[in-house]
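Reverse transcriptase domain-containing protein, Schistocephalus solidus. Tokens?
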Amino acid sequence: MQATTCVSTATVHDLLFADDCALNIVTEEDMQKSMDLFAAGCADFGLTISTAKTVIMHQPPPRVEQNAPRINVNGA
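Tokens:
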């Protein structure tokens, strides 16, 4: 007896919570693009991103020079 196998994958880049959001992005350029889109979406709904509470976490691959990403939120 043979059964048919179906495998699918999905990559999740944005995790939204009640008052938090996690953007799971690989490159600094894509992170800035995602942040710009997220900020625009927040502005559309009258929401403000608190830069005092905003944290960028960067985890480079092993044995790669570590450079802190420079991500702007609303130009700041």
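Strands lie at 14-16, 21-23.
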